[in-house]
Amino acid sequence: MGSFSIWHWLIVLLIVVMVFGTKKLKNMGSDLGGAVKGFKDGMRDGSTPDSNAATPPAGQVSNQANADKTTIDVEAKQKS
């Protein structure tokens, strides 16, 4: 029950190729590589401070002008 020899691993690889086929294994490998690359890009983007965080992307409306105005509680106004 220890480690397997190279022949055991070659037989397992042969069975996996026979079951899944080389095209499906190639697609699974490229999907896995894309997922790892996306994860690394996401980790890199999350660790750097974003200098454009204060400005919204083009075509998006910003509510920062309305954030400076004071809000009025409607319930409190009706009670008085």
From TrEMBL:
Q: Which UniProt keywords apply?
A: Cell inner membrane, Cell membrane, Membrane, Protein transport, Translocation, Transmembrane, Transmembrane helix, Transport
Spans traversing the lipid bilayer: 6-22
One GO biological process from the UniProt record?
Answer: protein transport by the Tat complex
Compositionally skewed regions (Polar residues) per UniProt = 48-69
The record's subunit annotation is: The Tat system comprises two distinct complexes: a TatABC complex, containing multiple copies of TatA, TatB and TatC subunits, and a separate TatA complex, containing only TatA subunits. Substrates initially bind to the TatABC complex, which probably triggers association of the separate TatA complex to form the active translocon.
Q: What does this protein do?
A: Part of the twin-arginine translocation (Tat) system that transports large folded proteins containing a characteristic twin-arginine motif in their signal peptide across membranes. TatA could form the protein-conducting channel of the Tat system.
Protein name (record)? Sec-independent protein translocase protein TatA
Protein species of origin: Acidovorax delafieldii 2AN
